[in-house]
């Protein structure tokens, strides 16, 4: 594997003073539904409002002299860019985040508020990545990918260490699945600590790039489509070197969800758990509510982000039209 639990432990020591160790709480409502303990890892309460700070901080902490001088860049659907901007500002490093027009405006504004330059390029994550690569070539900036990088995977894996410590008898963890950096790190950490653990990836049906790649046996391109789980959008990179192989080898099952199912997950988190989360963070809850997630023992569901447009959130929890909202999420 590209990253093992030893590297994840090293990442935890490296970023300990930057990130928040988030709580893991038992959900009475979901436990009743599942017939087994269901724990919610409240990672949406992380600084910057998402788990991405873990990987970004680990990457920035390992920059060499050239990277610190020229700065860092990345293609992002929003949360990685916000995390990298935060970590870069804290380290005094220049930062440029490249994003497509599908990234919600509230996430772009949050990146700019942290002092980074936000560049909006094209209609896909691939378009944004081309611009980031140009900055690497022309300015000498260091690319910090959102998922396909051992530094990122190890940083995200620290979330898995915490979940394994908080729920040592976990039988299953259901993790949002996009480019695979989070689930690869979590799987490497938790499978080393929780014998027999099943790792389930959850994605949206609209443009699930990792699922399509797993089915093809190699990284493939997919058409990006608007989704309430916008943070799960984007491809995995045709030259993917790390996260695809780790997901292929460590993830036991992939579940995809419709937009109404994702909306139901967001509504449950708000009404029953009193938590505001974005669509990508709600997919584990949504899969359980939809009856697509089999539970045979203690289940851990990381709520991975809260960076949702609040007007969109209001409309979702009020039960307004999901298809219309999915278009507006672009």
Short note summarizing the structure:
The chain has 330 residues and is α/β, with parallel strands linked by helices. Helices cover 46% and strands 13% of the residues. The strands form 2 sheets. Strands 1-2-10-7-8-9 form a 6-stranded mixed sheet, sandwiched between helices. It has a 4-stranded parallel sheet with strand order 5-4-3-6, sandwiched between helices.
Could you list some keywords that capture this structure?
330 residues, alpha/beta, Rossmann fold, 4-stranded parallel beta sheet, 10 strands, 13% strand
Task: Report on the architecture of this protein.
The chain has 15 helices and ten strands. The model has no long low-confidence stretch (mean pLDDT 94). The protein has helices at residues 5-15, 28-34, 52-61, 65-70, 79-91, 105-113, 125-139, 150-166, 181-193, 209-216, 243-250, 259-271, 283-289, 310-317, 322-328, and strands at residues 24-26, 38-41, 72-75, 95-99, 117-120, 142-143, 172-176, 198-204, 253-257, 299-302. It has two domains: 5-51 and 149-328, Rossmann fold (3-Layer(aba) Sandwich); 53-143, Rossmann fold, CATH 3.40.50. The strands form two sheets. The protein has a six-stranded mixed beta sheet with strand order 1-2-10-7-8-9, sandwiched between helices. Strands 5-4-3-6 form a four-stranded parallel beta sheet, sandwiched between helices. The relative contact order is 0.17.
